[in-house]
Amino acid sequence: MDFSSVNRFNGLVNFVCGNLLPLTDDATKFSKAQKLYSAFTWILEFTYFLVTTFGIFFTTNQRIFQDTTVNQAVVIEILILGFYMNLRRGLIYRLIGQMNSVLINVETLKECVEKTVKPLQRPLKLYTIFATVTVVLFCGSPIYKVFKKDQFSYNDFRIPAYIPGEPYSTGLFIAGILFETLGGFYTILKKASIDIYLIHVITLLTAQYKYLSLELINIINGKNENINKSDLESLDNERNEKIEKTVQIELKKWIRHREVVMEIGKILKNLLVLNVVYVYLNCIFRFCFLGFLLISSSGDYFIQALVCSYTVVCLMQVYVLCFCAQNLLDSSTAMTHDAFYEKWYAYGPSTKRIFSMILISNKMECRLSMCGVVDLTLPTFMAILKNSYSACLFLLKVK
């Protein structure tokens, strides 16, 4: 069991979109063909960004607000976070190395990882598939115009884009639609890949905290594999020195394991210092203009259905991300909650002292950000919806 084998879907999306975010702590793992494919996708993405950005200057303000804003917000997010994540590859390799060191082949840990990671795979797959299909249909929707006329302009594209040679022939217009569709496909897939990757890291760290909670209970109750259960029976009558020392050794091992997990949490916080803030602001911006687009695109029911579908899956993705961050925060401070009600008081003073130190240090929260407003927990999700709604109402009043 390691970082890459726990969630195969994460690796699949990471490869198809061309992000090539690290899945192992080996920097030479990717082949030359994969690197060339990744370079092609990023060149295509940057070209798509330039074409749609220049298209802003050749269309109306209404179309800029309706069709360009959300697309540009996502593309800019991909370019910034993609560049940032690749800039911090050394930190990611270090995080994966630390994570693999504590992903030991213990049945309890395997169960914790499976229970934490597996329930999230279905919503993430739905998000990736529906978001990709929706964007492809949205970008390719103007194709019906080729049956109505034979000359086309910048504004005939679904997302206003600058392509030299206006007015366009039918062949050039179809090529432009294919380019926009391909650009939209890689944009949303790269976005989904980064989201799935971050959620994967967060859930693995959460599983470690849950495993530590169960392992502490097992040590206190003498269910650890290194503790002789027959010796444990004598604790209620006369303290057994052998079992006392064994429990202390296991508690110290537990503390060392927790130190590694906490170090992973610090690395993760350093890695996500930009991601968390940018995702928070970008979500407010996106949902604001998605709401504006949904309300203002009256009459075109097909586009409204696509926008509504995309909005729903985006809300689901942000909720899953905030849920995972909240679960990580709760798990990091709940390691000793259940163990506190076990018979730790039956041990000697030295063992009690170690357990007391563990209790005191259990208040160290694992957050994704130093600022509680943008740390992507469930209250943050509600704040995103509230701020997006307020901004959308303001835009409608201005309109």
TrEMBL record:
Gene Ontology CC terms: plasma membrane
Subcellular location: Cell membrane
Membrane-spanning intervals of the chain: 39-58, 70-87, 126-147, 167-189, 272-295, 301-325
Record keywords: Cell membrane, Membrane, Olfaction, Receptor, Sensory transduction, Transducer, Transmembrane, Transmembrane helix
Membrane protein topology class: Multi-pass membrane protein
GO molecular function, one term: olfactory receptor activity
GO BP, sorted A to Z: signal transduction
Family: Belongs to the insect chemoreceptor superfamily. Heteromeric odorant receptor channel (TC 1.A.69) family.
PANTHER family: ODORANT RECEPTOR (PTHR21137), ODORANT RECEPTOR 19A-RELATED (PTHR21137:SF35)
Name of the protein described by the UniProt record: Odorant receptor
Source organism: Cephus cinctus (Wheat stem sawfly)
Lineage: Eukaryota, Metazoa, Ecdysozoa, Arthropoda, Hexapoda
